[in-house]
Write a structure and sequence with these properties.
By secondary structure, the chain is α+β, with helices and mostly antiparallel strands. Helix content is about 45%, strand content about 20%. It contains 5 helices and 3 strands; from the N terminus they run ββααβααα. Strand 1 and strand 2 form a beta hairpin.
Length: about 100
């Protein structure tokens, strides 16, 4: 039986002033898509959010979607705290996920 993985992730821009919360079933593919700006009119392209600073893994899509919605509802300070607990330096994790 195939194991499913769904990722809730947070991207930021180079100066770490804007954040974006998303969900996907392939984190490496989705990060590459954000980096390549496949949707030039989208939020992440407009604000240059292409740097991964946080992610978590879920087995079930319904849990991942609920978590994405929960995080999106938080104030910025709480999102910052979540990122800092996972990634204290707000390091860009793209290469860790993409394997480059």
């Amino acid at each position: 039986m195939r194991k499913h993985e769904y990722f809730v992730y947070i991207l930021t821009n180079f100066n770490r002033t804007v954040i974006y919360v998303g969900v996907t079933n392939s984190l490496s593919r989705r990060i590459a898509e954000h980096h390549e700006q496949i949707n030039p009119d989208g939020f992440t392209a407009k604000y240059q959010c292409k740097y991964l600073v946080y992610y978590e893994i879920h087995q079930y899509i319904r849990n991942a979607l609920a978590r994405e919605k929960e995080i999106k509802s938080w104030r910025r300070e709480k999102k910052n705290q979540l990122i800092e607990e996972f990634n204290p330096g707000w390091n860009f994790l793209n290469n860790d996920v993409l394997g480059d």
